[in-house]
Amino acid sequence: MNNTSSLEMISTGRRQRRLRGMAVTSLLALLACVLSVSMLLLGNTIYSISDVIRVLFGEQVQGVSFAVNTIRLPRMLAGLLAGFAFGIGGCVFQTMLRNPLANPNVIGITSGSSAGAVFCIIILQADRMVISVASVVAGLATVIVIYLLSRGKVFSIGRLILIGIGLQAMLDAFISYFLLVGAQQDIPAALRWLTGSLNGTQMHELPPLIFTVLFFTPIVILLGKQLSILELGEQSAISLGVNTDKTRLGLILGSVCMIAIATATTGPIAFVAFLSGPIAKRLVGAGFLSLVPAGLVGVNLVLAADLLGQFAFDYRYPAGIITAIIGAPYLIFLLIHMNRKGDL
Amino acid sequence: MKTTHLLEAEQIKSGYENKTVVHGVDLIIPSHKISVIMGANACGKSTLLKTLTRLLKPLYGKATLDGTPIDQLQPKQLARILGLLPQSPIVPEGITVADLVGRGRFPHQSLLGGWTKEDTKAVAEAMDIMNVTELANRPIDELSGGQRQRVWIAMALAQQTDILFLDEPTTFLDITYQVEILDLLTDLNQQYGTTIVMVLHDINLSARYADYIFALKQGKLIAEGDPSDVITSGIVKEIFGLDCTVIKDPISDAPLVIPKGRHHVKNEMRIRSSISSE
């Protein structure tokens, strides 16, 4: 037995995986900072960093203060928080159900939250608090309906995903219907509920999102260790001492709340919850918990998509259109790939 | 040496929705020994194993560890005493051998505490015992079936439990690997005194490697004890409905079951069998 060398092999492998994970996380955080700052500097007029910093510290700068405080800062914060919520929430579902297709975008949870929010806005003309609560309730209700419908004699992930896709189509039909009967709603508002957008986000809309993300992120990250054991399957997880029911409940509640409130604020920014987890996993490699990296990938996707949508084309597109252009081909790629591997 | 424990089934009835599979089993798992639960397909052996490892709640009766019902123990505390290798565990994509074995350390880690030297030591030891150290930084997806199975057992060993359950650890493996796995488990039992309980399909390997056999038929325990007492032509006929002759295994002196089908039976054996069945 050569115990010292095996000890070394194991610690070296662990160290390398950790280093890679931390390096990737730091780079993603750095990129997110760069994009956030760009969100504040860029617009119809480009401001200098010093002007923006002075405004952020409460100084009044002619012309700059209004644009930054009422337009660019809320837009940036909404993108930052919603991107993080979509990224981390999507990754939780994908890891828990061990299938990249099983994410809130594909199985209808974001559509459920959107439908709840749109119903409150257009039909009930309700206020912000009611909208937030309704989107969470609708998101959780969607999870419960998927669970009840896909519960057969034997659990099958394929059935769950198909039921989710069907449910999503139905919920999207509700959203379209609400938008139609809401008639006088203008097209940008409608687009927000179909693909998601940061356009016109206002500061007073943000507190529920800020609170939810700050409250649930630590909970979900704490449950991350259990989640990585849950990945080994129910039986292994129980025999390793994980309380599987409680863990799952905590993870679902936390990620659905984050996703639902984010959806109520920015609309369902297409495919962010779907793309972030797999991208983060590929970047950090297996064996490093990829929840935080997934959240950061979500931030970068949303902010980059919004900047691209604003400045890269002659016409201004909402962030959700840009993420959909990336996300849809990936969905098709994944379906073909999984079909070949026989995972579907 | 591992600690001695009293793991006991009391009047256990268990099964799935409206279908009782195990009908009232009482047993005590012999400490520091290798036990095999034996029986025909669908006789309830896996269900019994799941009930003893709290994967399944019994419909009636209880499984107790040192006098306490196992579902009343803290999950992590129980996981430090009793481990299980399920029949078909799931491999997360891309995970390396050392990382998977490391996940066996979960019950020894606190909520906020990180990875410790103790954990590395336990993982190294488990990988050395199961002979997978060389594979440490390879992804599981690249391994052969036999290697994979050794890695999974290594994960269960990193858990450092006193009792280890295995649900058909040799299924789908070539005979070479079946013997290799059973030899490694015997090493483990002899060197550390780990109590091993497994479900095995192969009667002859069970007879050779087990210290103690539990024979189940239709959810009831019909015989238990030393393999040479339990594995007789009468009991094999009762459990499996199979005519056979039991001889001494020339290698180990354990009972060896020679099945008797309708074909390829020598004439004088036919006569003997008709006499013995009367």
From TrEMBL, chain A:
Principal location listed in the UniProt entry: membrane
Membrane topology reported for the UniProt record: Multi-pass membrane protein
Organism: Alteribacillus iranensis
Family under the similarity heading: Belongs to the binding-protein-dependent transport system permease family. FecCD subfamily.
CDD domains the record matches: TM_ABC_iron-siderophores_like (cd06550)
Any GO BP: siderophore-iron import into cell
Lineage start: Bacteria, Bacillati, Bacillota, Bacilli, Bacillales
Keywords, alphabetical: Cell membrane, Membrane, Transmembrane, Transmembrane helix, Transport
Domain of life: Bacteria
Pfam (any one): FecCD
Name of this chain's protein: Iron complex transport system permease protein
Automatic annotation (TrEMBL), chain B:
Presence of keyword Cell membrane: yes
Annotated ABC transporter domain residues: 7-243
Subcellular location: Cell membrane
Main location: membrane
Entry's Gene Ontology BP terms: iron ion transport
Membrane topology of the entry: Peripheral membrane protein
Keywords attached to this entry: ATP-binding, Cell membrane, Ion transport, Iron, Iron transport, Membrane, Nucleotide-binding, Transport
GO molecular function annotation: ATP binding; ATP hydrolysis activity
Keyword Membrane found: yes
GO CC entries: plasma membrane
CDD domains for this protein: ABC_Iron-Siderophores_B12_Hemin
Name assigned to this protein: Iron complex transport system ATP-binding protein
Native organism: Alteribacillus iranensis
Upper lineage: Bacteria, Bacillati, Bacillota, Bacilli, Bacillales
